[in-house]
From TrEMBL:
Known catalytic reactions: 1-(5-phospho-beta-D-ribosyl)-ATP + H2O = 1-(5-phospho-beta-D-ribosyl)-5'-AMP + diphosphate + H(+)
Keyword list, A-Z: Amino-acid biosynthesis, ATP-binding, Cytoplasm, Histidine biosynthesis, Hydrolase, Nucleotide-binding
Signal peptide: none
Presence of keyword Plastid: no
Record-given protein name: Phosphoribosyl-ATP pyrophosphatase
Coiled coil: none
GO molecular function: phosphoribosyl-ATP diphosphatase activity
Pfam families xrefs: PRA-PH
Family the entry assigns: Belongs to the PRA-PH family.
Organism: Polynucleobacter paneuropaeus
Protein location: Cytoplasm
Length: 133
């Protein structure tokens, strides 16, 4: 795997482009212009909140299992490829959930940007100190 692949704005634009496709599918589904039999994205939207959120749980579990298998097979290339595929499924289904709840990947990226440079340990301690936990 190439560690330098897709760093920087290419990642943002790839996610934004896919989110545009997902949002368009959602609008088309709501308008009755797209058939869940021909669009997997529309099929997911037809399942509503519970179906979409359940799918995230399933995809997360599949990604965890692929990671464990990858480790056991000493990171064999084909297992790494499977792990990337499962992570892609997970990210895709997260984009579906964001769209369902009126959000965009840009919102998540902005939050991650905001956190840059703040240690998770410090942030957790600050939350405890202000009683937010
Ligand atoms: N990126 C994706 C994408 N990633 C994963 N998937 C689908 O997500 C599913 C993964 O779920 P599973 O592994 O559980 O497989 P499954 O057995 O088919 O699912 P279930 O029957 O268990 O629900 C597969 O059917 C994949 O095809 C995706 N489907 C669509 N996209 C993008 O969305 C666009 C629009 O897709 P359609 O709405 O189908 O035209 C496509 O052009 C792609 O760019």
């Amino acid at each position: 795997m190439n560690n330098s692949a897709k760093s920087g704005s290419g990642l943002d634009s790839a996610l934004a482009h896919l989110a545009d496709v997902v949002d368009q599918r959602r609008e088309a589904f709501k308008a009755g212009q797209i058939d869940p039999k021909t669009s997997y994205t529309a099929l997911l939207f037809s399942k509503g909140d519970d179906g979409i959120l359940k799918k995230i749980g399933e995809e997360a579990t599949e990604a965890v299992m692929a990671a464990k298998d990858s480790r056991q097979s000493q990171l064999a290339a084909e297992q790494q490829k499977r792990l990337v595929g499962e992570m892609a499924d997970l990210w895709f289904h997260c984009l579906i959930a964001l769209s369902q709840f009126g959000l965009r990947p840009e919102d998540v990226i902005a939050e991650l940007d905001r956190r840059l440079g703040t240690s998770g340990i410090e942030e957790k301690a600050a939350r405890k100190a202000t009683g937010q936990e």
